[in-house]
Amino acid sequence: MEIDLYLIVSVAIFFGFFVQTVVGFAGSLIALPILLLSVGLPDAIAYISIFYIFSSVFLINKEWNNIDFSILYKLAFPTLIGVVLGILVLAFTNPILLKKALGIFIILYVIYVSLIKADFQVGRKLVTMLGILGGFFSGVFSTGGPLYVISVKNMSIDVTTFRATMIGIMGLITLVRIPMLSVNGILTFDHWKVALIIFPVFLLAQYIGKVVYSKIDEFYFKKVLLVLLFFSGTVLIIN
Description:
Order of helices and strands: HHHHHHHHHHH
Oligomer: single chain
Pfam families: TauE
GO cellular component, one term: plasma membrane
Protein name: Probable membrane transporter protein
Subcellular location: Cell membrane
Keywords: Cell membrane, Membrane, Transmembrane, Transmembrane helix, Transport
Low-confidence stretches: none
């Protein structure tokens, strides 16, 4: 049974962070359905959160000078509220309902990316609300990124700053999420033990992802990814 656990977590982390490296999003959305084949939702979130620590430390150190901290400050408090609420829901809500909610979230995300072509402007109140919702989904599913993308895009910044600021937000979420998961008993020493053992898999995923990114047609890769996400979301809803 323990060998099966290591295998499933290794496969999930490899494909999740491989995708994250290649296209810059959807790592959690890929890893979660795979992890849920073997572990419960709280355990799955614990594993993903640990590897986001490793990823955030490296990326924030690399992109520190490009982060727009004024945007980060605006989203910090709403994010804190959302993450706390999300983790409380994760700790005390029926996992079956949460799995179906995750499936719905994934499908809505695919529809959003596929059908909404133009950016739309949002006001300060909506930015705050998106920050809370982004934190909430990050607390429950580690998948709040799409909502932050909407907020940050509306700040009229260049691509380099946009990417770096998104990395900063993900780092902020991780910083809040880890102690909250630990306090609620969701993240334990056993999770850290498994994560450290398969850490080389995470490094391999990042390395191969960087190699593939330089050679693959990103447009078609994203199309295939959206199909896979839609399929995984459907399975979570009907299973």
